[in-house]
Amino acid sequence: MSQPSPQNPGLLNWILLISLGLIWGAAFLSVRVALDGFGPVTVAALRVSIAALVLLSIAPLMGQGLRTIPSRRAWHFVAVVGVGATALPFLLLAWGQQFVASAFAGVAMGAVPLLVLPLVYLFSPEEGIGPRRIIGMGLGFVGMALLVGPGAMDSSGDPQELWGRLACLSAAGCYAIGSVTTRRAPAMPPLAFAAGGLLCASLVLLPLALLLEGLPESWPLRPTLGLLYAALLPTGLAAVIRVRIITTAGSLFMSLVSYMVPVFSVVLGVSLLGEQLPPQLYIALAIILIGILLSQMRNLKGLLRKN
């Protein structure tokens, strides 16, 4: 049996990729459930802290403990990504999801690959951005405008809903910045990078949660299960799956998950939480996915030819 590669990812990597899309798509639903029992800062803090404990336990077993982070400069990147691309977006998402449907947060995350493009143009011009990517990026921004534009308040009437939507889109921006920052970071073992980033996020969010919300007075079952899911699967286990896919099938194959997460988040939000979504959200989802497809068309054609 041949080993998986970017030219031939193999059945297991396809299963892992689809599983990852489902795990990440369900993360927004689980956070929405956790918010029924805990404050948003507590949700974000416990999510990263539990995941950090998991990865700090797993990484050394795989030869990628924190000691393998090679230099002080590398630690600076770990800290920046941990705080700016983990702690901050998790906090923004948890706060924003108090006022928006979980499906909205998932669709907003679908914009991450498009937000990355202008940052790549500014900070990694060697990667190149052609006309197709510019058109795709433009479509993506049209989709994002639909998410917060006229009629955006129609889904619930909550006076804070617009701010919740902006918080979710800001979280997507944090992830995009984190992606470019990670690309520029010194070479280091990926699990060590992820574990160190989660540790830094925990050191920021735990004191903030204690200061603003205090210790939880109770641990209701359903919100606690939602919190544990968010911590253990999309934050902890997903990091391990992501590393496995990238190291055996490549980052291009991994990028296909961007198409899956928004779709899964909408399906799960509607089917499990009974969320009533405005028609413009579905239109925005379609436009964002078309934008991603256009921006990645050349890479996807190359992947299909290799397979």
Keywords for this entry:
single chain, 307 residues, mainly alpha, globular
Describe the structure.
It is globular and about 50 Å long. The model has no long low-confidence stretch (mean pLDDT 81). Helix content is 76%, strand content 0%. The longest helix is centred in the C-terminal third of the chain and has 29 residues, at 221-249. The protein is mostly helical and 307 residues long. Helix 2 packs antiparallel against helix 8 (190-212). It has helices spanning 11-34, 40-61, 72-96, 102-109, 112-123, 131-148, 161-184, 190-212, 221-249, 251-254, 257-273, 279-295, 297-306. The protein starts with 10 loop residues before the first helix and ends with a helix. The protein is built from 13 helices and no strands.
